[in-house]
Specification:
With 161 residues, the protein is α/β, with parallel strands linked by helices. It has one domain: Rossmann fold. 60% of the residues lie in helices and 11% in strands. It contains seven helices and four strands; from the N terminus they run ααβαβααβαβα. The protein has a four-stranded parallel beta sheet with strand order 2-1-3-4, with helices on both faces. Helix 2 packs across helix 3. The longest helix has 31 residues. The radius of gyration is 19 Å and the shape is globular.
Length: 161
C-alpha cells in the first residue's frame, strides 16, 4: 500500500524523488544471487523484500532474499542505547554474511554498525545506502544541469540566428 502511494506521489511532482536505498538495491541485485538483508522491524523487511523483487525483475535477475529481523535492536535504539543497538546489528550481520553473496541493512539507523564491517570480509560485499544514494542524486543533478544548459544554449542559439 505505502509503495503504491509513493509511486503515485512521485509521478505528480516535477522533481526526481530518490529513495535512499534505491541505488544500493540495484547494486545488490547485480552483485549476487543470495542477498542478505537486516531490519529491526518486520514492516521494513517486507517493504525491502518487495523492492528487491521489483528491482530484480526490472533487471532480469533471479535473487533469493535472506532476511533477518534483529530482535531487540529497535527497542535499544528507542531507549537511547545505540551501542547496544549497533552490537546486535553487527552480530546479526556477521551471521547473515555466512549465507549471502551481498549484505545490506534495510534501515539507515543500521549503517553505523554495518560500516564497521565494510571491507572486513573478503567474500561478501557489505553495502550501505548513503554513498550510492548521494552518487545517484549527483548524477541526476548533473543530468538535469546538462539538459538545462542544452536548452539554454538552444534558446540562445535561436536568438542569435
Amino acid at each position: 500500500m505505502r509503495l503504491a502511494i509513493v509511486h503515485t506521489v512521485t509521478s505528480l511532482v516535477p522533481v526526481p524523488v530518490v529513495r535512499i536505498d534505491q541505488a544500493m538495491l540495484r547494486r545488490a541485485v547485480t552483485m549476487g544471487q543470495r542477498i542478505g538483508v537486516l531490519a529491526t522491524l518486520m514492516s521494513t523487511m517486507a517493504l525491502t523484500t518487495d523492492l528487491i523483487g521489483r528491482v530484480a525483475s526490472e533487471l532480469g535477475r533471479v535473487v533469493e532474499v535472506k532476511g533477518q529481523i534483529v530482535d531487540g535492536a529497535f527497542e535499544r535504539a528507542r531507549a537511547g542505547d545505540f551501542a547496544g543497538h549497533d552490537d546486535l546489528v553487527r552480530r546479526a550481520l556477521q551471521h547473515v554474511i555466512a549465507h549471502s553473496d551481498v549484505v545490506f541493512p534495510a534501515q539507515a539507523s543500521m549503517v553505523r554498525a554495518a560500516d564497521q564491517l565494510v571491507g572486513q570480509t573478503s567474500q561478501v560485499q557489505v553495502l550501505t545506502s548513503p554513498r550510492p544514494a548521494m552518487e545517484q542524486i549527483a548524477a541526476l543533478i548533473g543530468a538535469q544541469n546538462l539538459a538545462r544548459d542544452w536548452r539554454l544554449s538552444r534558446q540562445l542559439g535561436e536568438r542569435v540566428s
